[in-house]
Design goal:
The chain is mainly α. It has helices spanning 2-16, 24-36, 42-48, 51-54, 81-93, 98-108, 111-125, 130-139, 141-147, 151-164, 169-181, 187-194, 206-244, 254-298. The two termini are 20 Å apart.
């Protein structure tokens, strides 16, 4: 908890522009090395860096499972989350059938613990490196999907990721971006979590806006790609109509069906993009509105840091 509080305080101080903030050149070097740590092991960076820059390296990211640090020599208390995590990972390592694993989760794990147990178990198992975590997410994406079956469940998955990587905001967004790319959580769930009252102070953190930038870029890129596919299908259909000498009334041709499918996909992408931006702006405005009301009630200036 102490490390997590220190990390939160550092982000809050930087966002507020406090005197604790580093000199620009030091901050720049740390920022670059922080990004490099996402692509290489810390040991490799330590060996390759000139000596004066080694002190600027960030600490090795360390996750925090809900059941705390595990003593390999100790036996987990039966029925505890740690014991359930060990049991879950043993089933995955022994290549148990998906149906058997999901049936065990339904029988043994309370719904309130499901997302934390699944997410923290996989993150703990994949904590060695980002590439190791990616392999686990690819292999056990069905497990995360089972824990994220609806909107509230997906929001709890997002919260579980943030809780595990509480001392490392950049790892939080790195993992969330991978879950979004695999469609295990959706951007709307992520924005809803970010704009919730307990988490909205993250809006003042630089790492949050880096993550949001990637999220919005992905949404726009997906929409443009879908629009391009629709335009290509419309051109193909126009050629088909010209070839048969006119559009058939009530046509159920394969070409017509493909066009309608592309139109439906395009409309869904357009709606999702619109909802993403609308929900985000509404969430940010809601945070400002709540702060303005709280400041007025307390007789405090509205300029007080709202986070």
């Amino acid at each position: 908890a102490g490390a997590a509080d220190a990390a939160d305080a550092a982000d809050d101080a930087a966002a507020a522009g406090s005197p604790r903030a580093e000199l620009p050149h030091d901050a720049f070097v740390r920022h670059i090395l922080d990004k490099c740590l996402r692509l290489a092991y810390l040991e490799r960076l330590q060996k390759g860096l000139p000596a004066p820059f080694v002190s600027h390296l960030p600490p090795q990211p360390a996750g925090a499972a809900a059941w705390g640090a595990v003593d390999p020599s100790a036996v987990a208390e039966p029925g505890s989350m740690q014991a359930k995590s060990v049991s879950l990972l043993n089933r995955l390592r022994s290549r148990a059938e998906q149906a058997d694993v999901l049936d065990w989760l339904q029988r043994e794990v309370p719904p309130a613990e499901l997302q934390t147990l699944v997410v923290h178990s996989l993150l703990d198992a994949g904590a060695k490196s980002v590439s190791h975590l990616e392999r686990l997410l690819d292999k056990f994406n069905w497990l995360v999907a089972a824990a994220a079956q609806d909107g509230p469940a997906r929001a709890r998955v997002v919260g579980a990721v943030a809780a595990y990587w509480r001392t490392s905001p950049h790892m939080t967004w790195l993992v969330l971006s991978k879950l979004v790319r695999r469609e295990l959580v959706d951007p709307q769930a992520l924005v809803g979590w970010l704009c919730s009252a307990p988490e909205r102070r993250r809006l003042a953190w630089p790492s949050t806006w880096e993550g949001l930038h990637l999220l919005f870029e992905r949404s726009l890129s997906h929409f443009k790609s879908v629009e391009g596919e629709l335009k290509a299908e419309e051109d193909k259909y126009a050629e088909y109509v010209e070839m048969i000498g006119g559009e058939e009334e009530g046509s159920t041709s394969a070409a017509g069906q493909r066009l309608e499918t592309k139109r439906a996909i395009s409309e869904r992408a357009r709606r999702e993009k619109k909802e993403l931006f609308a929900n985000f702006f509404a969430g940010v405005c809601g945070a400002f509105d709540d702060h303005a009301k709280a400041a007025a009630a307390a007789g405090a200036p509205v300029e007080t840091a709202w986070w």
